[in-house]
Design goal:
Layout: E1 4-6, E2 9-13, H1 16-27, H2 32-46, E3 56-62, E4 69-73, H3 83-88, H4 109-123, H5 130-133, H6 135-143, E5 145-146, H7 149-162, H8 168-172, E6 184-185, H9 188-200, H10 204-207, H11 209-221, H12 227-231, E7 236-238, E8 241-245, E9 248-252, H13 259-271, H14 282-302, H15 319-326, E10 345-353, E11 358-366, E12 412-416, E13 421-425, H16 431-445, H17 450-455, E14 459-461, E15 472-475, H18 480-488, E16 493-496, E17 507-511, E18 517-521, E19 528-531
Helix pairs in contact: 1-2, 2-4, 2-6, 6-9, 13-14, 13-15, 13-16, 14-18
Length: 532
């Protein structure tokens, strides 16, 4: 497949309807922020196993001539969500992945939509109302959308585990069975909730009638979240982290995300002059994987809610620190490994408009279907991001009231010295920074077009959604001799299928100084590039 072309605007998403929602806004004269709000709303409806309005989101934003910006729309733990509270519930060792007591953090993504809408109006001349931006999502929720193979298969895989959770069966199953691919999936309660947001604004989700209803529903089913937790939440405008790279400047999200991990990997590889190896060779993959291990060590020692961090994440991107990590990479031998963060369930999307304004966006509910609970009246599937907290008081990410949970999410963007700009990203837990590495190095270092960079076989060290092993996973399209070489180097190799969504649903858009846009979408997803 070849990259898609455009010049007036382009969007990429893991579901084609989300890309089309963004494109329709761009065609009406909307900017990249407005287009992304529309795409975010649509994807929450049409890809419900991967994200929802009961989750969190992060934005990295750039407009030519303006400073780089970002939005942290991550919700904090409930005020009552303490280690003692869990002990009182009979939970001693770890927070459950599923159920009401796993739903212990505020869902921040709607606040991110609101913050983006305000930024659009204040700084980019945006004029489209929220009611227009949520139009497609409301229609799809009310009138139905075809079930994808991904949704059908994943629902079946998780059906027995999630069926006991409040609201799951009524929402996601049909007569107790998984919905068939191509059947119509309706979410009328969610349509009403989105209509309320369209009419009253995003603030209603946290401080209005909708907030009161959500809080009542959460309390009734046993979540520790309360109305005061919703009221105190605000999306936060942030300055993204940045890496000075030989090709230009690369940007990513601040903690509590692992954005710094993605940048450390690229910084190490820049120090090691990755281009001396042939793209997709055993040496190339080995160095990418070994750089990842060094970055993960930093993550697991330091990255948490920034209010609790003892060192600035930006310090880890200084050349001298990156050089010290690069010296630890053995060119011939794999470092023993076994320290994955666990599964994740996410969508990444990108938009660049005709004026060159860029948005890299990610939205998630953590595990597949989040906590598995669906609120009875609002139809909101709530995230389980807070199960990443530890109940060990000595742990880096120990649970505290109002603390933000660690996030694997990280949307990426690059501004190159030659004037090009690029948005790129993926879903997939530990795999996110690794797939970002593959996309960035294949495009920026080796000159491949975005579609080729995404379609080529990928690797993944550690865990992601649907996986619990910490092996080095390779898609089977890699040459058998390459696999043998990696095993000889000491890698614990596990083979995946030829085109396996375990390695993520990636996307990428590159804008040339001329205004020409090139985009790639992931054939492992139900996605598309939409452009004009």
């Amino acid at each position: 497949m070849q990259a898609k072309w455009g010049i007036r605007g382009m969007a990429v998403a893991p579901h084609s309807l989300a890309s089309e929602s963004a494109l329709s806004v761009l065609r009406e004269g909307g900017n990249a922020l407005e287009a992304m709000i529309a795409a975010a709303a649509t994807i929450a409806v049409v890809y419900p196993h991967m994200n929802s309005i009961g989750g969190d989101s992060f934005w990295v934003i750039h407009a030519p001539g303006k400073v780089m910006g970002g939005i942290d729309a991550c919700g904090a733990a409930a005020g009552s969500a303490s280690r003692q509270w869990y002990a009182d519930q009979g939970v001693q060792n770890s927070i459950p992945f599923r159920g009401p007591i796993a739903a212990n953090t505020v869902a921040g993504t709607i606040s991110g939509w609101g913050a983006a809408h305000r930024l659009s109006r204040q700084n980019l001349g945006g004029k489209l109302p929220m009611s227009r931006l949520l139009e497609d999502a409301i229609h799809y929720a009310k009138n139905g959308v075809p079930v994808t193979l991904s949704q059908s298969a994943l629902t079946e895989k998780k059906r027995l585990e999630l069926s006991p959770q409040p609201g799951f069966s009524e929402t996601f199953l049909v007569n107790g069975k998984s919905p068939e691919t191509g059947s119509i999936f309706l979410q009328k309660r969610l349509a009403n909730t989105l209509s309320q947001i369209a009419k009253k604004g995003t603030e209603d989700y946290y401080r209005g009638e909708l907030a009161e209803l959500i809080a009542t529903e959460l309390k009734t089913i046993g979540s520790p979240l309360r109305l005061d937790d919703l009221k105190r939440h605000q999306a936060k405008l942030i300055d993204p982290l940045h890496l000075q790279h030989s090709t230009g400047n690369i940007y990513n999200m601040t903690p509590p995300t692992q954005g710094v991990v993605s940048l450390i990997i690229l910084g190490i590889l820049d120090q090691l002059n990755l281009k001396r190896f042939q793209v997709d060779s055993a040496e190339y993959i080995h160095h990418c994987v070994e750089a990842t291990k060094q970055a993960f060590k930093v993550r697991d020692q330091y990255v948490t809610d920034p209010a609790y961090m003892k060192q600035s994440a930006q310090d880890f991107l200084k050349p001298e620190f990156l050089k010290s990590l690069a010296t630890k990479v053995n060119a011939n031998q794999a470092l023993p490994w076994g320290a994955g963060r666990g599964p994740a369930d996410t969508i990444w999307m990108g938009v660049i408009d005709g004026e060159g304004r860029c948005v890299s966006f990610i939205q998630s509910i953590y595990h597949e279907f989040g906590a598995g609970i669906v609120l009875p009246k609002t139809g909101i599937n709530w995230q389980n991001r807070g199960c990443s907290f530890s109940l060990d008081p000595k742990a880096l990410n120990t649970l505290e009231p109002y603390r933000k949970p660690f996030h694997t999410l990280n949307p990426a963007m690059a501004l190159f010295k030659d004037g090009r700009s690029m948005v790129y990203g993926t879903m997939g837990g530990d795999g996110q920074p690794q797939t970002q590495c593959a996309i960035f190095t294949r495009t920026a270092i080796y000159g491949l077009d975005p579609q080729d960079a995404i379609s080529r076989p990928r690797w993944l060290l550690g865990r992601t959604w649907g996986q619990t092993s910490d092996s080095l996973k390779l898609e089977s399209r890699f040459d058998t001799n390459l696999v043998k070489q990696l095993k000889t180097m000491g890698h614990d190799v596990e083979m995946l299928s030829a085109m396996d969504e375990t390695v993520g649903h990636a996307g990428c858009i590159i804008r040339d100084p001329s205004g020409i846009l090139r985009g790639g979408w992931d054939p492992r997803s139900d996605g598309a590039v939409a452009a004009f």
